[in-house]
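TOKENISED FOLD:
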Amino acid sequence: MNQIIDTNAPIPVPRLSFDTQSFGAADRLEAWRENIGVFFDLSAVDGGRQESVERARIDACSMAGTVFGVTTADAQLFQRSEQRVARDAMEHFLVQVFLHGGGRTRNGETIQAGDMLIIDLDQPHSMVTTDFSNLTLVLPRELHPALSDILTRLHARRLPSTSPVIRLLASHLQSIWHNVGDLTVRDAGATLKGTIGLMECWLSQNQFTEALSPEVSSGLAKAIFRHIDAHIDQPITPEQLCVLFRVSRSQLYRIFKPYEGVSRYVWERRMLKAMRMLANPIFSELAIGAVAFKCGFSTEPHFSRSFKERFGTSPSAFRRDALDAYFNGTGYSDHGQHYRDRFASWIREL
């Protein structure tokens, strides 16, 4: 007798678990790197080479275009250098609640159990942790642009559990995780939509964005930033922006004050675009001078001087090292490939 399949039956949320304890001691570190390495480079807490990992576990679910789950691990150093950011161009945020343990970020923020931390994977980040467990929502930037603008400005900032708003948000995320086993795919979509709305409302409060001027958190600033990125290969001056967006010099000054002015912001965006192009194999046949031109520099010598000033190395040396790392990276073991296909591929497919 043929089995009758109910196509209208609820579809449960896909879930997975990874645990280094399922590997032999010699394979645990490699397996861990295959998984968490989709986000970070790993080192020992003193910055030296990491020789082993005893305990590391990921329990996660794929939920309506996001990945959500709990990571538990021993103390270590998690890093995303500027070179790594350029190389993988990952347009996601990590919204984290620390359940146990914590750590210290490179900008001096001390994270404790109960605190939240926002990590913009498009910006450099470094954090030394204690033994810890955290709940993480991996949120694609394009999923909700208004929330993404807020999260970008909260990158690497401690959101303390002393704030009732943060306690409410952390409790909400933990409640979702505790009930995820009962959620269907349809439930997950509605849950995520409500969660994003709560996050946008709560995190846009003045206590978290008070360092930002009103213009920076408005549509005006976002439109100006997008215009600069879209025309980065062309001359851009404060005068042009004032005319194009019908703003005064004082308004423009307030928008760009956190970035040390218009010229500095434009220069930094050009440098970051150049770094990403040089690290990308797609542009490996493009001459250095052509990269310079596409990033708004009129001459190759000027570009090379600026690049070395910003990154401490020449464009050609940076490209060589970045492409070597890309083409000659560590291969995957059988275990690593298996787990990469289950977890890291979820992240790459967001």
Observations:
- DSSP finds 14 helices and twelve strands in the chain.
- The two ends are 40 Å apart (CA to CA).
- Residues 15-211+329-348 form a domain with the Jelly Rolls fold (CATH 2.60.120.10).
- Confidence is low (pLDDT under 50) at residues 3-7, 211-217, 329-341.
